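Still learning. Any example?
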Amino acid sequence: MERLSKIPKLCPFLPLVFLLVMVSCKQQENPNISSEQLLPQIEASLEELVSVWYPKTIDTINGGFWSDFDYKWDKKGDQDKMLVSQARHIWTASELALYSKDGTYQEIAAHGYRFLRDEMWDSENGGFHTLLGIDGDSLEVLSTGKSTYANSFAIYGLAKYYQVSKDTYALDLAKKTFYWLEEHAHDSVYGGYFDVLQQDGSWMLDITENDKNYDNFIRKDWKDQNSSIHLLESFTALYGVWPDSLLKKRLEEILLLIRDTIITDKGYLTLHLERDWTPVSLRDSSETYRKEHFYLDHVSFGHDVETAFLMLEASHILGRKNDSLTAQKAKKMVDHALEWGWDEQNGGFYDGGYYWDPSGKRSIENRAKVWWAEAEALNSLLLMAQLHPEEKHYETLFEKQWQYIDSYLIDHEHGGWYPEGLDTDAEAKKAAKAQVWKVNYHTIRSLINVITMLKGDFELTKNGQ
């Protein structure tokens, strides 16, 4: 692993310090800097972000990646191995290998792949374990059930790793995971997938008591937008390297369920739904109960702008020419989030709002500006700007979103992104830079996509929908 300690720069043609100074001077001279002129700054930011994550997070003792770092990037915490974050590292390192054409990132991805293959696959029941803990010199299973959401990220990382490595064993493992979900999580009656499963993959519809301390037991009978959009994401990646007929059928199924059922007429995602896709609403619950269970029912602006991109990506990989309905729905989601969840003063999207009645009464319930949502917004705003060049406000908003991220989310002293914008939480400056739910795939994917778009090489905008 000695080579992994020497991570090359992504932009070797210009010293980073000089580049940052040059861009800073340009901004001072011209406050109305255009999107194209932001390109060097965003490239430099990507380079700086990558260098703080790798090789620091590579766990050469237990395998996979370290999970927990404090605000100064000192390794602190339990260092549990969660499937979602481990798989996201594999995807990110593989994407960096493709983007930079440097094999060192492929080695990092291979390191993560071996850990997923050897330690996280459940050899008894199939599927991947959700969470492992370090117990001395060994690993123990901490999760009490299986998660479709988490297994979807395994597919996502494995498919991307196969794309760069051509390792057929990795592709076989992605296929194996897809078939496991097909057998255990897919609902052949109503379509879609259950997320919360027992350890052997069984559904929990008939279980009334949580006597085995199952994870996410409150959601056991429901389907949800979050696992659905990330199945869309992972099936899109897998179909790009394995155009299988059943996979295509499931990708089309989940795309249409999201577009035509989970997305409301107003243009936002319903977070949770009954098995038959009846929306779950806490509007009639007590204020105390609703606030305690906010995560079950609200309008999530970050998920909405992210899903706009993921739907367009899926439609593109499926070859759905002139898919105007998907394009219209994607645009509507971004517009709805901008109309309600956008901070006109500083930029950035608030975390969540709530519709109170059919007449449209609504409010912002959580004003936090969360790192992953702001990253996804940056990507989707530029995507809208390039798909709809006649609507100039998208480019203006993209530029403002970048300035927001640069001013309030990027830690220019220690590196990385704060978990929340400093304008809504000044204490985020001392919060953990990494934990099992905070990795780097949202941020690095967004920056790579934005750079590629600004260079005119992004598939969704280069070839059109």
User: Anything to note?
Assistant: The first strand starts at residue 81 and ends at 82. Residues 1-6, 11-30 have pLDDT under 50 and may be disordered.
